[in-house]
Write a structure and sequence with these properties.
- The structure is a single chain.
- The radius of gyration is 30 Å and the shape is elongated.
- It starts with 15 loop residues before the first strand and ends in a 7-residue tail after the last strand.
- It has 20 helices and 36 strands.
- By secondary structure, it is of the alpha/beta class.
- It folds into four domains: about 240 residues, FAD/NAD(P)-binding domain, CATH 3.50.50; about 80 residues, Alpha-Beta Plaits (2-Layer Sandwich); about 100 residues, Glutaredoxin (3-Layer(aba) Sandwich), CATH 3.40.30; about 250 residues, NAD(P)-binding Rossmann-like Domain (Rossmann fold).
Length: about 800
């Protein structure tokens, strides 16, 4: 079993690649990260609807940066900011350098709502009302048994991740070792409407601790602990009468007239899994570690677990993971979790201890008042001080070796690129690795402190990163003077925002790319091809190296030219045909003779079962050649012409046009979205006849108009997944029809073009290749006129 999960002979009967158990914030964050990385995921949740209890309400600086790097802060809005937090009830200024200093008040219900919307928009399958009852692990898959709304459910996947809280069913069923200690002290709390009491911030009274905070909606959250009182035995949550009595004993106030909206108790129990990974079973959030939720650290720790795990697991299940990639999840996050649990235990002692802890509190208060002490505690609570081992440093979550930036988060920085002003968070929103070439600081545009100018270094960086082009974006940027990045030369940033490599050349870059972004895909050799118009071009860049493509109707004409063109750029191309196998085989042979890769796949479109047949052949061919069914580029080219006057158009002929030209592309896209990862491309071939009248092609033009609507509306749906979709409209293009053998007819048709010639299939193929590449990442929902100026009038 290679690397524990990515078995080359994984069973074809799996329902998904990853099952996530638990649809709380951690599970939903993980589901979104997996989908960004192109992994299929099903989320199982015991509750039938999201909880209305807002247990956690604090997001710390590092979590805010992560949410920004996924474009989620726009959905959250601008929450209240509180720069001052606490350490065990001792006031502490949490402000540190960065865009989101302090702590931000977002109800957990809102965080969960935003993460669910995001995960669903990326294609995650969230199934509520499913309680996991059984787990079995096999050499090449896992099986989950659950009870669902319709009865028992059995699901198979490559792996499962338990994100189901401190009472994790996955942890129990899997028999994971979880050393822990029961609570010795507890806080009971409630959200109460209709009471008017003074706000209290960690007020230590004679008999205990009292906390009260009135929200803008008039609801007051109260929390109380009685010194020396152990947790009461109970089977569920405390009743309101219990907190009323405790509040009266500690404060002397009566809150019995209020209306309780939520009552809860939490103690200082703590525990941590011995290992966050057990082969095909992994854990994140409270399923991996149990701690008292002091200062909101538990939620933030869990969300950061999910972001560390998501991209690694997505690479692994695609069978491209390098040795040890998935093990690095435990190696990085277990030490961080242990450190957080340690500081929370210290805080619980300071917060819930009686008069005996006052001397210790006095010492901590002095430490927190110093610059160094305050910064240390604030960095620990916020997560901004986490530093992972990249190569050669201690794996303690805060160590590291080499450049000061190595292993740390990418410093939030304003950048100037060729495309304008941007920020580091924006460059990470695709969930890909980032290779950032620093061109200098201020307006100088120098070498950033290195011996090699940034412009010369860029070519070397691009060559080194080309085999990972499907997982890494290369950007040259100027940083402000004084930025921590100014002297770095170039940095490789992992999808979770941590820097994995720095350098002024390319030494060590390939090793870092393979270590953190997975195995490289082979780069096809350079090759030469020839256009119909005898203009020769050399394709050395291979901008689609590592990509996979499906071109429907590619055994002849524009489809054939497009398949060959995409293969010239390095893509593995599925050449689709309906009936002419010999023609499709000839296209594949041409591709392979030129140094590329392709295979034929048959399916007649416009008939029942067409899409199913197409994807059976496509996925079989992709898996045989790549070990994955990932599809990066879909070109809907197949179509049938009409050429029939209105009076002679029969219902059967009309239905055939609709079935092939409009219905098939819709359902091909629908099915392909299970295979297309973040950064995918969909290109639909329309026609200039949607803008240029021809009475003999009314029905045909109607179907192509429908195709253009696919791009317009799917673009809005797929934007959050970083998938573009566009329409290309050819004009009169040489397609093998006998009419193109008649000089007079060709001359007449050529006169319609601004260039005074008819189009060649390669003219259109070049446009498609552009839209399939990274250069077209900012174009979606567009109509691209590829008629050679025919529509100019």
């Amino acid at each position: 079993m290679a690397h524990g999960i990515d078995t080359p002979d994984a069973p074809s009967g799996t329902d998904t690649q990853v099952i996530v158990v638990g649809a709380g914030p951690v599970g939903l964050m993980l589901a979104g990260e997996l989908r960004l990385g192109g992994a299929d995921v099903i989320v199982l949740e015991r509750l039938t609807s999201p909880t209305t209890e807002s247990r956690a309400s604090t997001l710390h600086a590092r979590t805010m940066e992560i949410l920004d790097s996924r474009g989620l802060l726009e959905m959250i809005g601008t929450p209240p900011n509180e720069p001052r937090g606490h350490f065990g009830g001792i006031p502490l200024d949490l402000t540190l350098p960065g865009p989101y200093p302090g702590q931000w008040k977002v109800p957990q219900t809102r965080t969960e709502e935003v993460l669910q919307e995001w995960a669903l928009s990326l294609g995650a399958d969230v199934r509520r009302g499913h309680e996991v009852r059984g787990l079995s692990v096999h050499p090449d898959h896992v099986e989950i048994e659950a009870t669902g709304p319709g009865g028992p459910v059995r699901l198979r996947a490559l792996c499962v991740v338990g994100c189901d809280g401190e009472n994790s069913a996955v942890r129990r069923l899997g028999g994971a070792d979880f050393p822990s200690e029961d609570a010795a002290r507890e806080l009971i709390r409630a959200d109460v409407a209709g009471i008017d009491i003074p706000d209290r911030r960690f007020e230590r009274l004679e008999n205990g601790l009292a906390i009260a905070a009135r929200r803008s909606d008039g609801v007051t959250r109260v929390m109380v602990h009685e010194f020396g009182r152990a947790p009461r035995p109970r089977t569920g949550e405390p009743d309101f009468g219990e907190i009323v009595a405790a509040w009266r004993r500690v404060t002397g106030e009566d809150i019995s007239g209020g209306t309780p909206l939520w009552v809860n108790a939490f103690g200082d129990a703590h525990g941590q899994l011995t290992s966050y990974r057990h082969g095909r079973v992994l854990f994140a959030g409270d399923a991996a570690h149990q701690q008292m939720p002091i200062g909101g650290q538990a939620l933030n720790l869990g969300l950061q677990d999910a972001v560390n795990l998501g991209w690694k697991l997505a690479v692994q299940v695609s069978r491209r993971g390098s040795e040890g990639l998935l093990d690095s999840y435990h190696n990085e996050r277990h030490p961080v979790g242990a450190r957080v649990l340690s500081n929370i235990r210290a805080q619980a002692t300071l917060l819930l201890g009686g008069p005996e802890v006052e001397p210790i509190r006095a010492v901590f208060a002095e430490i927190a008042a110093t610059d160094a002490g305050r910064a240390h505690l604030a960095g620990m609570i916020s997560g901004l001080d986490v530093r992972y081992e990249m190569d050669g440093g201690p794996a303690d979550g805060v160590g590291g070796a080499g450049h000061p930036l190595l292993g740390r988060r990418l410093p939030p920085t304003s950048l100037r690129t060729d495309e304008g002003e941007t920020g580091t968070a924006v460059l990470l929103r695709r969930g890909r690795g980032l290779l950032l070439n620093i061109s200098g600081s201020g307006s100088g545009g120098g070498s950033g402190g290195g011996s090699e100018p940034a412009s010369e270094r860029l070519d070397g960086l691009r060559r080194a990163a080309r085999p990972w082009a499907d997982r890494v974006t290369t950007v040259t940027a100027t940083v402000p003077a004084g930025s921590p990045l100014a002297d770095a030369g170039a940095v490789l940033v992992r999808p979770d925002g941590h820097i994995a490599w720095t350098g002024h050349g390319t030494d060590g870059l390939t090793t870092a790319l393979e270590r953190w972004l997975g195995l490289a895909r082979p780069r096809p050799a350079s090759r030469r091809t020839e256009h119909k118009n005898t203009t020769k071009r050399r394709y050395d860049m291979g901008k689609l190296t590592g990509k996979t493509a499906l071109v429907t109707g590619s055994s002849r004409g524009m489809g054939r030219a497009t398949a060959i063109r995409l293969a010239q750029e390095g893509a593995l191309v599925a050449v689709h045909y309906a009936t002419n196998k010999e023609a499709a085989d000839e296209v594949v042979a041409t591709i392979e003779k030129d140094g590329g890769s392709g295979f034929a796949v048959r399916a007649e479109l416009g008939v029942p079962g067409d899409v199913h047949e197409l994807f059976l052949g496509l996925e079989r061919g992709l898996k045989e050649r790549t070990g994955s069914t990932e599809l990066n580029i879909l070109v809907n080219n197949a179509g049938v012409m009409g050429g029939v006057a209105v009076a002679e158009t029969t219902p059967e002929a009309f239905d055939r046009l609709v079935a092939v030209n409009a219905r098939a592309p819709f359902f091909i896209i629908q099915r392909a979205l299970k295979n297309i990862p973040s950064g995918g491309r969909i290109i639909n071939i329309s026609s200039g006849l949607t803008r240029f009248a021809n009475p003999d092609e009314i029905a045909y033009a109607m179907t192509k108009g429908a195709v253009e609507q696919l791009a317009l509306h799917f673009a809005k749906l797929l934007g959050p997944r970083n998938i573009t979709i566009n329409s290309v409209a050819p004009g009169i293009t040489r397609n093998g029809s006998p009419v193109f053998d008649i000089p007079e007819a060709v001359e007449q048709m050529a006169g319609l073009s601004a260039f005074n010639r008819v189009g060649e299939p390669e003219d259109v193929a070049d446009v498609v290749a552009f839209l399939a590449g990274d250069e077209a990442r900012w174009i979606t929902g567009s109509f691209v006129d590829a008629t050679g100026g025919t529509l100019l009038g």
